[in-house]
Amino acid sequence: MRRAFQPDLICSGGRVLASAALLVEDGVVTSIGEAPAGVEVVRLRRAAILPGLVSAHSHAFQRAIRARTEWRARSESDFWTWREAMYAAAGQLSPDDLEAVSRMCFYEMALSGITCVGEFHYLHRDTRGQPYDDPNELDLRVLRAARGVGLRTVHLRVAYARAGFALPDNPRQRRFIEGSPDEYLKNLAALQAAVRADPLATVGAAPHSVRACPAEWIAQIAGEAKRQGWPLHLHVSEQPAELAQCRAEHGVNPPLLLEKLGALHENTTAVHAVHLDAADVRALGAARATVCACPTTERNLGDGIVQADALLAAGARLSLGTDSNAQLDLLEDARELDYHLRLQKLARAPLDPGEGRVDGLGARLYAVASEGGMRSLGLPGGALRAGEPADFIVVDLDDPSLAGCADDDLLAAAVFSLQRTAIRQTWVAGVRLQPDGARIVTDFRAAMARLWGGAR
Amino acid sequence: MRRAFQPDLICSGGRVLASAALLVEDGVVTSIGEAPAGVEVVRLRRAAILPGLVSAHSHAFQRAIRARTEWRARSESDFWTWREAMYAAAGQLSPDDLEAVSRMCFYEMALSGITCVGEFHYLHRDTRGQPYDDPNELDLRVLRAARGVGLRTVHLRVAYARAGFALPDNPRQRRFIEGSPDEYLKNLAALQAAVRADPLATVGAAPHSVRACPAEWIAQIAGEAKRQGWPLHLHVSEQPAELAQCRAEHGVNPPLLLEKLGALHENTTAVHAVHLDAADVRALGAARATVCACPTTERNLGDGIVQADALLAAGARLSLGTDSNAQLDLLEDARELDYHLRLQKLARAPLDPGEGRVDGLGARLYAVASEGGMRSLGLPGGALRAGEPADFIVVDLDDPSLAGCADDDLLAAAVFSLQRTAIRQTWVAGVRLQPDGARIVTDFRAAMARLWGGAR
């Protein structure tokens, strides 16, 4: 299957090219330039092709609590009371409902321009806390939802051992917890085998956090991830209470603990990494690890602001995640990465790479949202260079949110102003995503009605 | 003209009603309840009616610099270098181009659910700094653009006297400056007369700021505004440099200066009001003045965070503005009002009115975006109660950003999650807005090409 996509503009490798064609063969970009004679040409009028966006950290099932933790918020509400509301959903979802909720979430991702998701999934067991006949039952449901919509997906199967250091068991976590790192790794290997035939689905290892996993778990899982070439994702330093626990148990902050355990390297993604001291930043940078910021969720949960400028200066990489999926707009996450620092520093453009650089602020933030996510998930691509997967979006240059922009400003306009109405098409591996939206919404509404007793 | 609008849900007075009809007669809501026999019924399936959104502070012409100040941002860029870029556009726009740019901006507002705009307009003179034959030429162009799209508009004609206290004249402000408060007030009275026949256009007085207007100007204009019943809008305490100037000239911060000049009362709107001390907050609260926050622009410009919780506690009112129109999404502004405080306080929901209150956080923030804006502009309405203007939006309950929400969660879902794709229709005074989008975009692109020499 060979096709030349011919829009007005193509963004490739951070540059915006006019009058070029994107040549795609078997799901891969083969070249950018003139369309060769004889090849099928897909003309895209008044349109630009941009790299697909990557949510490197998602909990799809949390779509079920969207808005329901806001109206009911109380003045004394905080991250930990929000977590109780989330547990209420997690405790009840049937496999069918989990699949319907996840499909809704992934469908909205596709509409918002996301082509690849890192699904950090920690619901494994049944409502009583017993393994399903297939211990990957729920993981496979979520995977099926993503692949049904057509997204490229990296299923980050989560290891969860305990409520926390010196904390009593929390029965609301009964669906997350497995018995041992051996059991977890066996299940993850089985999951990998189950998706082997699908070129668009892979797996990764995800010890939940230093709170939920003791050091032995993290060390063993990180060792196996290294042997298997899996990306390694963990929640790191999201909330002050979590840091205090880590220091009480290990005497250091989470990044230094990971370093000590051999779990901090260039295939590691530290999700959130909001509360860091200078030594933490140095460790993440020296390891060339990725920090996955989830600013839209981090502002919702009152987590705080990722010090993206300090992390980049230290050598760390960045990616973005939609996390709780309270709002699905990864370009909003990209702009917040800079905007939250502007609010903190009362200055403009702290992440601007400096005058005269080809990759200006818009290009840099867009790359975090695309390439940065792919790297974070252990995948090549994200920049639409020759040889990379043909994962892209087609945006409408006449959409009111983009209209009138100059070629050189396209990436800045996309990052700072694009609305979802501008996203005309989403393509993954050279295939256009066209899921059955009406059915997805109907099934989701039914699941929500079962879960909460009322859904309009 | 009498019609009953029959959606699934109607939000009126902060409450969400099912199975009711919104009865509209001559542009006004007459009742909410059963549709009387014989009246034309407009069925809106899978839809909710919500109050129209109000941008109480806009500079429509700044749509022309969208994205163009981001890519070109430099590490040393700040509010004041951004202002130079804005001046480059302001200095060149012809009346036709100003109208085309404004129409583009207002069209996007309509698509985003805004029904009423407070246009804070300070371009009055020609490119050489001379008055046009009609000194309201440019003001009338902007007004015509808003009314052509169909928005309700309050034209806040700006008074601009000088670059600042003890600052030399800035030739880039030559189109803003008029000779005296008398000249300004004469022009404003003429503008009011010119729009008298239009029930959807009114005017307001707007001394630009304590930087750009000396005390005598503010006192005289505020006095006339009181006599005429005009709303009084000013930029207040947006940037630290502006405060320093005010203290040097007057020995107090801007809010206390306004109080001293008789310019701080319940018809006053202090736009931004980011940098306030405790005495400033007390003065704004005691006056029952409105603070118009513009968080999306304030984050873009690195202005800082509006202390909305302290202002509410002191008795001040709140409204929202899209200001630079870098991004047109007033519900994003509404959520940022709470979110920026969450990031600052590392807590959830600082603006939640407290447990057990009918007007939960979503309802409160929505009301700031609708009712708060109308009050700020001196207009009744914004809540769709009987007797108020029939300015509303129709949102799609099956849109993926809203799907599955419960009736009680509708306002929280709208404030925290709604994407523009959910906005199906926008109605002002009982009339549906259906501007010619293709023509508006084409004209805008031509204006941008003339202005900058390149627009895709």
Can you lay out the helices and strands and say which pair or pack?
The structure is a homodimer of 456-residue chains.
Chain A: E1 2-6, E2 9-12, E3 15-18, E4 21-25, E5 28-33, E6 40-43, E7 47-51, E8 53-58, H1 79-90, H2 95-111, E9 114-121, H3 137-149, E10 152-159, H4 181-194, E11 201-207, H5 215-228, E12 232-236, H6 240-250, H7 254-260, E13 268-272, H8 278-286, E14 290-293, H9 295-300, H10 308-314, E15 317-320, H11 330-345, H12 361-369, H13 371-376, E16 392-396, H14 410-417, E17 423-428, E18 431-432, H15 437-452
Parallel strand pairs in A: 1-6, 2-7, 8-9, 9-10, 10-11, 12-13, 13-14, 14-15
Antiparallel strand pairs in A: 1-4, 2-3, 4-5, 7-16, 16-17, 17-18
What key phrases describe this protein's structure?
homodimer, 456 residues, alpha/beta, 4-stranded mixed beta sheet, 15 helices, globular
